[in-house]
Amino acid sequence: MPVWSNPATRGRARRLTRSSMARKTECYADTGAFIAFLDRSDSYHGLFRRLFSNPPPLATSALVLAEGHGWFLRRYDQRRALEFLNFVDALPALTIEEFDGGAVKAASRLLKKFADQKLTLADAHGLTMMSDRRITSCWSTDRHMTLTGATLVT
Question: Quick one: CATH architecture of 23-152?
């Protein structure tokens, strides 16, 4: 008799069993990932189309959304900028972290630490988010996003 049909093994999984089951790890999504997915002319479009087809839980910064909206607004028009926001709004498992006073201070400290790099405030906020949330995988086209040890998904 197969194990799955045995009445003794058909019940719900216990808490310890569930906690050891594989879960998708949260990833950080940077501006470049959103742009590459939504802009077919981007050289990374194929990669991010595949990744966004079955995404893990994602986290991003409010500054990333501001950068992305501004990019589509300047590069294309208001319609494409709103399509970007609609796409973000429709993502099922996306956490958007606010950029408040504490985040400004943390990002500023990181900018000073990496003063030799051309980091934007959005980059610094993303790097601090990844450290705070213990995120080790980053969806980005920007090599700066590896400065604190995260791995770019390629």
Answer: 3-Layer(aba) Sandwich (3.40)
Q: Is the pLDDT assigned to residue 94 strictly greater than 70?
A: yes
Which 8-state DSSP code applies to residue 69? H
Q: What SS3 state is found at 152?
A: strand
Strands (E), the chain: 27-29, 58-61, 94-97, 137-139, 151-152
Give Cα separations from 59 to 25, 125, 128, 151 (angstroms).
11, 12, 12, 15
Is this structure's pTM higher than 0.85? no
Structure tokens at 114: 């990496």
How far does the chain reach from its first CA to its final CA, in angstroms?
44
| pLDDT at 1 > cutoff 80 | no
